[in-house]
Design brief:
Layout (H helix, E strand, L loop, with lengths): L6 H8 L34 H15 L10 H9 L3 H5 L14 E8 L3 H9 L3 E6 L4 E7 L3 H5 L4 E6 L3 E3 L10 H20 L8 H4 L2 H8 L7 E6 L5 H6 L6 E3 L9 H12 L4 E6 L4 H13 L5 E4 L1 E3 L9 H11 L3 E5 L13 E5 L13 E2 L12 E5 L6 E7 L9 E7 L5 E5 L10 E6 L1 E12 L4 E6 L3 E2 L24 E7 L38 E5 L5 E6 L4 E5 L14 H18 L5 H11 L19 H8 L7 E3 L3 E5 L11 E10 L5 E10 L5 E3 L2 E7 L4 E9 L10 E8 L7 E7 L3 E2 L3 E4 L5 E3 L3 E11 L5 E8 L15 E3 L5 E6 L5 E6 L8 E7 L16 E5 L15 E9 L6 E3 L2 E9 L2
Helix pairs in contact: 9-16, 11-14, 12-13, 14-16, 15-16
């Protein structure tokens, strides 16, 4: 049964959850009011003496910053200066952010030339490095506040700012869960999955029916075959549980990029419900903004994803220029991928739920104290109003207020500041970074509380077009102030020119009221299909997106129609936290799945083809025509496929070759012998495969295959057929060196040909030889990418055909700090272990599994083991026995095994510690039969 949320439950929920999901351990600076007696209300429209004095005090601090301190964002520089100057806090009685300790830990993003020396410097100052990318010139680290000044002065450092934060576009974003909460959720999901699997029932998104995707699949016989759809979100914690329940097939997760959370799992379930034949992939977007951009590119270049979908916005993404994340989107779309992104849940002018203002800077004439510049006048008429009243009723956590203006990224020469004040004229939030030609045109602060107002001050420079948005807040009249709103709150990579920005409309029962004063959300047609009478979600973000600059910062004014299209939300998934799943987070994967159906039936379809089809067939919602809230309208899969046509495609893929016999009568190929091979092919497509043939080509000289090609003929859907070949290798062939054959399968159909690589072993595996680490126990650094690494020399093996990684120990226990286990660590779920071969090839042994369980002891990771370690929970601690690894370990056996191997264990979360003590490698070399 679909579960709706009552108004009462919704209000209870909204006062108990975080409005923003943060990345890292930092949080938006928000008001911390100290106890004060009653005071006069702030006069409407102009600065009071109280407001003037406090803003002047902050600007005085800004004016006396050194060149080094100017590299810091103001939420770092002002508290740092206040730590040694008590007068700063004394003049700002309601500004709690200036009263912290200089020893407080801050999560920061450092823009710099990334070198080992700089990373070592961070650690020597008491910091931890969570992420570093030389290519992106970016480091995410957690450091003491009193260290940021020293780091700012370090060679190659150009900027240090509080860690960029992000949120997904679920209507019910939650605070980053504690590790205990996360483990409990995953455990409960697995218990539900096992129960669900026993009942042989799965949960299907109502969007499958309302988009008429089920009817389109039945009529057109296309299922997404031949298309790979990949998602980026927070994480896929319950992926194993979803697979156990039959909700998801195999998912290609980028190594070490599973993330934390389950919104990614929910998105993948939606894609699979509508396009069950599509292959799936995933990577987290939540390590940092730089990592997000890298993962977008990796999903295309490494995982070969055809369609990519995300539901994440970083608060520092530019509205007026394609920034680093949008540039990554541009790269993958230029390479042929389609990209879908949620438009956001930040409201619209048409729905009366907006907190967005855009316009040219207007000089109010209001200067205060020693202001260098003047305040902006929000009132377009003859009156003067230096405030924008902001409502964020009933929430306990800060939402971001973001100010941007029309300067290029990294070249802001006009300096604007942002202030948040209460009704008595006290500053309760500020953002006043220095912009003197090398910084971004961006100010961000946190908003929390009632009866607040925002003020924009031009500190220096020219009047520019600006945007002031409060994500998930509302601009509403109150306390003698009028709210001024304009459309266009959608931003960032979702507004990239070739991306599909997706708005939301409910599939079934509505969500109700989000904030007091909001209109009640509409309901959807389930079990019927969408029609032109459908109303969009009142929270769905509006456009258009006005741009001023090209990606390189050169002037390129244009207006982009965003969002592009609308799709379903308010649907069921198997995840308890996303049942129902509201928000443009749910809409984007519905749209991506419909695109997968189109591409499955039209394999050469590209972004332009799909965009044309969507525009031509979308249901036009009110107001009539293309509009800034729903774009071209609401998707219906049956209409799209009727427009594009759809031909069900066969998709024949190669299997692994097996040796039937060799010239000496056994089934072991040895140098100088010939072997008869059986090579299977399987039709995993939607239609009968005809004209199937297989061609094998040795990848190196010396080996030969006869015949070169075999004709198989017809292969029905879901069935396999085999062809036989003779492989011959010379006597000089190296024992243990596999024969790699390039395979090409042709058949009648647009998806033809498919290719693969077959590996035929030469020799038979010898008994395992074990090589152990013999050095001292090494502490595993807490929450740092450095990790603990040990070297294991290997000799006398030559080429190997099998690898096992073992964590040893003499006596297994869960005792904290135990010295008899191979790895003692509280909360094994924090750990990622990798093994690296002498030639540099790396495989992930385990990552993010095991929850709060302590210690690994007498545990063996080997390909083909019965149970994957990704399913391990704390109930399995201490972790012993045999487990399948995260990655295929044999992938490291690309060369001679002799040399130094490395096992590295990294702790990816703070608060737990441990030691790497005893590990070993088991290698099997090749011998003759």
């Amino acid at each position: 049964m679909f579960r709706s949320l009552s108004h009462q439950r919704r209000r209870r929920l909204l006062v108990s959850i975080a409005v923003v999901t943060t990345v890292g351990t930092g949080a938006l600076p928000a008001a911390t009011a100290s106890a004060q007696g009653p005071a006069a209300k702030e006069p409407a429209g102009t600065f009071s003496a109280t407001a003037a004095a406090q803003i002047a005090a902050l600007q005085k601090v800004k004016a006396r910053q050194s060149s080094t301190i100017k590299k810091l964002s103001s939420d770092l520089s002002v508290p740092l200066m206040a730590a040694t100057d008590s007068s700063i806090a004394a003049t700002l009685p309601r500004l709690g952010s200036v009263r912290g300790s200089s020893r407080d830990m801050k999560t920061v993003d450092i823009s710099a030339t990334v070198t080992p020396a700089l990373l070592d410097s961070i650690r020597s100052l008491g910091g931890r490095v969570g992420y570093a990318s030389a290519a992106a010139h970016s480091i995410r680290a957690t450091v003491p506040l009193n260290a940021v000044g020293t780091l700012a002065a370090a060679k190659g450092v150009t900027r240090i700012r509080s860690a960029a934060q992000a949120m997904t576009s679920s209507v019910e974003p939650r605070p980053t869960p504690t590790k205990a909460e996360r483990e409990a959720r995953v455990k409960a999901a697995m218990e539900r999955a096992l129960s669900q699997a026993a009942q042989a029932g799965t949960i299907v998104s109502e969007g499958d029916v309302t988009h008429a995707a089920n009817a389109a699949r039945d009529r057109r016989r296309v299922t997404g075959v031949g298309v790979k759809v990949c998602a980026l979100s927070d994480g896929v914690d319950s992926l194993a549980a979803s697979q156990a329940a039959g909700e998801l097939p195999a998912v290609d997760v980028l190594p070490g990029q599973a993330g934390q959370g389950d919104e990614g799992t929910a998105m993948l379930e939606i894609v699979h419900d509508l396009a069950p034949g599509a292959s799936l992939g995933f990577a987290t977007a939540f390590t940092s903004d730089a990592s997000f951009a890298e993962n977008i590119r990796a999903l295309r270049s490494q995982a070969r994803c055809d369609i990519i979908v995300d539901d994440v916005i970083y608060f520092n993404e530019s509205s007026f220029q394609d920034g680093p994340i949008a540039q990554a989107v541009n790269d993958v779309t230029a390479d042929g991928a389609m990209y879908f992104s949620s438009a956001g849940n930040e409201g619209s002018v048409l729905s009366g739920t907006s907190a967005n203002y855009e316009g040219d800077f207007a000089d109010s004439g209001q200067t205060v104290g020693k202001f260098v510049g003047t305040a902006h006048d929000f009132d377009p008429g003859p009156g003067v109003q230096v405030y924008e009243p902001v409502s964020y009723d009933g929430f306990l956590f800060a939402t971001p207020a973001i100010l941007q203006w029309a300067n290029p990224l990294g070249a802001a020469s006009d300096d604007y500041d942002l202030y948040l004040l209460d009704s008595e004229g006290n500053l309760v939030g500020f953002s006043q970074d220095v912009q003197d030609g090398t910084q971004d045109p961006l100010e961000i602060l946190g908003v929390i509380g009632a009866d607040l107002r925002l003020a924009v001050v031009k500190y220096s420079g020219q009047a520019r077009y600006l945007q002031l948005s409060t994500l998930r807040g509302r601009y509403r009249d109150g306390a003698g102030l009028k709210a001024f709103v304009t459309p266009g709150i959608t931003r960032g990579h979702s507004a990239a020119a070739d991306a599909f920005s997706v708005a939301a409309a409910p599939a079934a029962e509505g969500i109700g009221e989000i904030q007091p004063g909001d209109p009640t959300g509409p309901s959807g047609p389930f079990p019927g299909v969408f029609t032109t009478s459908q109303q969009p979600e009142v929270f769905s973000s509006d456009g258009p997106r006005r741009m001023f600059f090209a990606a390189d910062g050169s002037p390129a004014p244009q207006t982009r129609q965003k969002p592009d299209i609308t799709a379903a939300d308010g649907v069921r998934t198997s995840l308890a936290d996303f049942d129902p799943f509201f928000g443009t987070s749910a809409a984007a994967p519905h749209a991506a799945a419909i695109a997968a159906l189109v591409k499955s039936g039209n394999p050469r379809a590209d972004t332009a083809f799909v965009r044309t089809a969507f525009r031509a067939t979308a249901l036009d919602l009110a107001p009539r025509g293309v509009d800034p809230r729903t774009g071209y309208g609401l998707l219906r899969a049956d209409r799209v496929l009727a427009y594009t046509g759809a031909t069900p495609q066969p998709w024949v893929v190669i299997g692994q070759a097996s040796i039937v016999s060799t010239s000496d009568g056994d089934a072991i190929l040895e140098p100088g012998e010939s072997a008869q091979l059986t090579v299977p092919v399987t039709n995993s497509g939607d239609f009968l495969a005809t004209g199937v043939s297989v061609t094998l080509t040795p990848s190196v000289a010396g080996a030969s295959v006869t015949p070169r090609s075999r004709t198989i003929g017809k292969v029905p859907v879901g069935q396999s057929r085999s062809a036989t070949f003779t492989l011959t290798i010379p006597p000089t062939w190296e024992l243990g060196r596999p024969v790699e054959l390039s395979a090409r399968v042709t058949f009648v159909g647009t998806l033809s040909p498919t290719t693969g690589v077959l590996s035929v072993p030469v020799g038979v595996l010898a008994p395992e030889v074990v090589f152990r680490y013999a050095g001292p126990a090494l502490p595993i650094p807490d929450d740092d990418i450095a990790g603990a690494s040990v070297t294991i020399p290997v000799s006398g093996v030559g080429r190997a055909g099998a690898l096992a990684v073992s964590v040893d120990g003499t006596e297994c226990t869960t005792a904290e700090g135990a010295t008899t286990v191979g790895i003692d660590h509280t909360w094994v779920g924090d750990l990622t272990a990798t093994v690296t071969a002498p030639d540099g090839t790396t495989a992930v042994v385990f990552s993010g599994s095991g929850g709060s369980g302590n210690n690994l002891c007498q545990v063996r990771f080997a390909d083909g083991a019965g149970r994957a370690f990704s399913t391990a929970t704390s109930a399995d601690a201490p972790f012993t026995g045999s487990w399948a690894p995260e990655s295929v370990l044999s992938s490291t056996l690309t060369g001679v095994a002799n040399g130094d191997w490395t096992v590295t264990v990294v702790d990816g979360a703070g608060g737990d510690s441990g030691t790497l003590r005893s590990v070993s490698l088991g290698l099997r070399s090749w011998v003759t039969g």
